[in-house]
Amino acid sequence: MCWKGTPVFGRAVFGGTVPVKRISRAVALGAAGLGACVLIAACSPVKAGAAAIVGNQRITVASLDAQVSNLQAASKSYSGLDLTTAEQPAAVLTWLVRFAIMDQVAADNGISVTQAQVQAGLADIQSEAASSASQEGFSSAQALFLGNGISPQMLPALGRWVAQEEAYEIKVNGGKAPTTTAEGNAVTAKYNKAECQAAKSLNIQVSPQFGRVDYSSYTIVPVSNLLSAPAGTPSPASTAGLTPAC
Q: What is the distance of C-alpha 208 from the center of its chain?
């Protein structure tokens, strides 16, 4: 397979034999922290008890906390993982938002996936992670997942996400996976547009407690709290990715 969709992992670049889309599959929380809202008031408000609202889906603080607890429990068996305790909520929320965006891409394009496809998608990404883990500084595929905010309990959703991407790829390429660079580039362009339009239609709102969406990478990045900064302190934040580029 020569095409890979959205960014996935921190330091790994998963390319195929024809690496068409050479995007670092990054959660990249450290680098993403440079981006933030100009003012907290510029970020969309969300209802009390919600970490984020994505379309008509409410991601509650309680459900996010549960997933973060799962991540922390599984991470105890590993050392040298990139994520700090403070970064874990945003990393987990990044994936919950990404999964919702992919669901919308699938809905917009009449795509549904079977459990068998989900299992195959999970097997695909586990294989990629296993082959890339050591060169990316992780001891195993599981460590790579954990280091990017994906707990064992989130793996079925990750498999569904991959299966939906692969189904989209085949559908927009005339019923077959792309086998040439030209086909891969065409699929990439279509996918990027579909993903952007899906994200825009969902009117994503994130509680400033957890950050805001960086639409350039579909990650949750910190919000700059200028209200607590000393007078005259310039904002260190970039405004890149504040809105969908479509």
A: 18
- Torsion-angle region of 235 (φ positive above 0: left; ψ -120 to 50: alpha; else: beta): beta
| 182-192 residues labelled b (16+ CB within 10 A) or e (exposed) | ebbebbbebbb
CA atoms within 13 Å, Cβ hemisphere of 181? 5
Question: Amino acid letter at 237?
Answer: A
Q: d(Cα 10, Cα 148) in Å, to the nearest integer?
A: 6
What is the pTM (predicted TM-score) of this model? 0.79
Q: Do 120 and 153 meet the contact criterion of CB atoms below 8 Å apart?
A: no
Q: What does the pLDDT look like over 194-242, one tens digit per residue?
A: 999 999 999 999 999 999 999 999 999 988 654 444 444 444 445 668 8
